[in-house]
Amino acid sequence: MTGYDRRDVGLLLLRLGAGGVLVAHGTQKLFGWFGGGGIGGTGQFMESVGYAPGRASATAAGLAEAGGGTLLALGLATPAAGAAAAGAMAGAAAVHAPAGFFNQSGGYEYAATLGLAATGLAVAGPGRLSLDHALGHRFDRGWMVPTALAATAAGVALVVGARAQRLRKAKEGEQDPLFEE
Predict the structure, then answer these.
(1) How far is residue 140's CA from residue 23's CA, in Å, rounded to a whole number?
(2) Domain residue ranges of the chain, discontinuous segments joined by +
(3) What is the pTM (predicted TM-score) of this model?
(4) Helical H runs in 104-143?
(5) Residue 37 vs residues 65, 73, 84, 128: alpha-carbon distances, Å
(6) Which of the residues 8, 9, 110, 115 could staple to 89 if both were Cys, CB 3.0 to 4.6 A apart?
């Protein structure tokens, strides 16, 4: 079959939409575009919510969002791109979770939606209107999906777990070595 079906068009639209939003958010963190704080401002925010060191956390989140979003939009290395973006959104959701689900109350609804869209694309694949398809799926093999998602889940568990420990220690009045001067 040489024509594109509605699944291919739907995946393209989902990739462009979710990928574009992720790129915009990542460039806010990395470059201060679209009213963002750049590495410095985002780094200060990251430290204020327990992600330390702040600048490294801002850089990692910005690269995962902007890089993962770009690759998703292009349909290139889709398993890794989706996993990276989903990991960044899991970290964001951890910050917003205490406010509940809905975004209007500061909740994690928005981060969860982007993370699930990225994960869904990693699992479903990019469709035929993608660079992965044009390149013979060199960077989109079946084994890459569980590998990328498992590696990301392990990394997120470590980072979010360390954040939770930092916040607990701060609440108890203990000094975190990463915050010592």
Answers:
(1) 21
(2) 6-171
(3) 0.91
(4) 109-124, 131-134
(5) 15, 24, 21, 37
(6) 115
